[in-house]
Amino acid sequence: MRNITLLGATGSIGTQTLDVIRRQNEEFKLFAVSANKNWDKLIEIIEEFSPKFAVLMEENAYKKVSNYCRMYNKNTEVLLGMNGLIDISTLEDVDIVVTAVVGMIGIKPTLEAINHGKDIALANKETLVVAGEIIMEAAKKNNVRILPVDSEHGAIFQCLQGNNIKDVDKIILTASGGPFRGRKFNDIANIPVEEALNHPKWNMGSKISIDSATLMNKGLEVIEAHWLFNQCYEDIQVVVHPQSIIHSAVQYKDGSIIAQMASADMRLPIQYALNFPYRKQCVINKIDLTEIGKLTFEKPDMENFPCLGIAIAAGKQGGLMPGILNSANETAVSLYLNNKINFGQISYIVKECLDKFFSSAEVNLDNILDMQSKVTDYIIKKYK
């Protein structure tokens, strides 16, 4: 049995990871778990899985879960904050850490887990977007596997199995196009939050749903693919595929394209990452190609969805620029979700911050976090 630490258990990816663990309860043990402030849902997880450790990021939620565990004599030790995240990511008994938290909060515990020799099932985009150079160097040094959980990167990972990375001509990263595909920028600039959250194919958290609507999500995935698969940006192609049946593909130098196809269900890439290199009993609805009818492909519309081009440009610049991109986007999306700015301002704010905070400073954790603070403070003060 493999022991798992699950960071971000109450979110969309975390919930689906729990379902995979539930279905393979003779092979996996949920050893430690974390949540931000969703204390009541975390209590349900403690009741079902009896983890040895639980972490809350918000103090009031921590107190509620701590009191509950004391009152009902639960054998779960409850911890608080970033130190708690790091503690449960480096436990000697843990075999693999699933990083399903959203945002830059995932960087420190992921890096510490790698330095303690833990395999990483990575669902936290920001970890590689912001600190890809650091993370991949640490993984190589500690002989740690970074197993992608994102649907697209999990698909690419599967398409590479049994082949030599040197034979890759390009990576084909598919995108659904989001809820506003085919519409003009001016038509969606003032779109209500609830419409932007309504993704046509995937059930995701609010931040990722907005990123999908702006196509920033795909830009972040390009940067992530660059680090995961050691490919030049020029060799990563984004293709809009509205049916979301092909989750991504790899074209080899002989012209062959190998694609991974399945229903739009995150439990498959989660299951594959947790069991790699083995495949287990199906946990998703299988597709029938005769019922699909047709698959279509389009070029991405970077004119009306500028975040994709902005993100790729920041990735090519490298250094701290992807971190600036990510911090600006995270803050802008939060403002939009709280009705402080409109949808169209997200890309404007991100571009503004990339210009204002341009930096060629060394990529290290201190510089990354310092820049994040500067960018966030600037946006909040200007757009509050």
Automatic annotation (TrEMBL):
What Pfam families does UniProt report for this protein, alphabetically? DXP_redisom_C, DXP_reductoisom, DXPR_C
Pathway listed: Isoprenoid biosynthesis; isopentenyl diphosphate biosynthesis via DXP pathway; isopentenyl diphosphate from 1-deoxy-D-xylulose 5-phosphate: step 1/6
Q: Which domain of life is it from?
A: Bacteria
Q: Which reaction does it catalyse?
A: 2-C-methyl-D-erythritol 4-phosphate + NADP(+) = 1-deoxy-D-xylulose 5-phosphate + NADPH + H(+)
1-deoxy-D-xylulose 5-phosphate reductoisomerase N-terminal domain location is 4-132
Provide the top EC class: oxidoreductase
Which family is annotated? Belongs to the DXR family.
What job does the chain carry out? Answer: Catalyzes the NADPH-dependent rearrangement and reduction of 1-deoxy-D-xylulose-5-phosphate (DXP) to 2-C-methyl-D-erythritol 4-phosphate (MEP).
Name of this chain's protein: 1-deoxy-D-xylulose 5-phosphate reductoisomerase
Biological source species: Clostridium oryzae
- By which gene is this protein encoded? dxr
